[in-house]
Write a structure and sequence with these properties.
The protein is α/β, with parallel strands linked by helices. It has two domains: about 220 residues, Rossmann fold, CATH 3.40.50.150; about 40 residues.
Length: about 260
């Protein structure tokens, strides 16, 4: 596994700064000015930069939310095919005419005949271990992980957790416990009322995210990852002339690019 700590593979020293200036102008035209709970400036720039470098003919995004990432992909790669997946598409505020939407989870699609340089962008807070295995199954080599929380941080099992063999213990607050109880109660009630109702494993797993520490995940990942790159925070090199709102610079979560073998 080749780990790149400062520069994206093939990136020149001044390229990051020049692209940052270019992107700050594009950013001003974003359709959703307040994207709380979704992508903010630093992760949007990282995604923009990676997409321009890789130039995949097909981009699959798993996790649409309000649609800011769909707009970003479309703006960055206007000639690429976009497949946008979210189990709840009702939250969209920006809907692209060029994207193909689906409310089926990523793993239920048939991606067996995608072009070789296709890319999947995961921003769905599903276990990274599961998502990387699924991408490997579909032979999708390029992956962007939008939130790659450090050990003991975050709200789901990330690549960093797996590589550190720290596992993930989902701490439940009062609100989280209420949401979990309500969701489970609703599912069991449907099962009681409708004889042909089937539990949604994906819905249940969205509330149960604990993963015990285990070394095998680390070893398995090392054997299938060719390139690992955590995109650096660009907060320190953003100039005042770019006029980026301070609220846009408070959600850097180690966005990561992977190239699988």
């Amino acid at each position: 596994m080749k780990i790149y700590k400062t520069n994206f593979p093939g990136c020149k020293k001044n390229e990051l700064v020049s692209e940052l200036k270019r992107f700050s102008k594009i950013f001003k035209d974003r359709p959703i000015k307040n994207n709380k709970g979704g992508m903010r400036f630093e992760h949007m720039f990282a995604t923009y930069f990676i997409l321009k470098k890789v130039r995949p003919p097909v981009v699959i995004e798993s996790g649409v939310f309000k649609g800011q990432s769909t707009w970003l992909i479309e703006k960055t790669l206007p000639k690429s095919k976009i497949i946008s997946i979210d189990i709840d598409l009702k939250q969209r505020k920006y809907i692209s005419k060029n994207a193909k939407y689906s409310n089926l989870d990523f793993k239920y699609h048939d991606f067996s005949n995608l072009p070789s340089n296709s890319l999947v962008f995961f921003d769905d807070h599903v276990s990274h271990m599961e998502r990387i295995q699924q991408a490997k199954f579909f032979n999708i080599k390029n992956i962007i992980l939008e939130d790659n929380y450090r050990s003991y941080k975050g709200d789901f099992y990330t690549l960093n957790h797996a590589l550190k063999s720290s596992g993930f213990n989902h701490k439940l607050g009062k609100l989280s416990l209420f949401k979990t109880f309500f969701l489970f109660f609703k599912e069991f009630l449907k099962k009681l009322l409708f004889s042909q109702y089937y539990f949604s494993i994906d819905i249940l797993k969205s509330r149960i995210r604990d993963v015990k520490p285990q070394k095998n995940d680390r070893n398995n990942l090392i054997n299938i990852i060719d390139i690992y790159f955590e995109f650096p925070s660009v907060r320190k090199i953003i100039s005042k002339k770019m006029n980026i709102p301070l609220g846009e610079l408070k959600s850097y979560n180690y966005i990561t690019y992977l190239r699988l073998l």
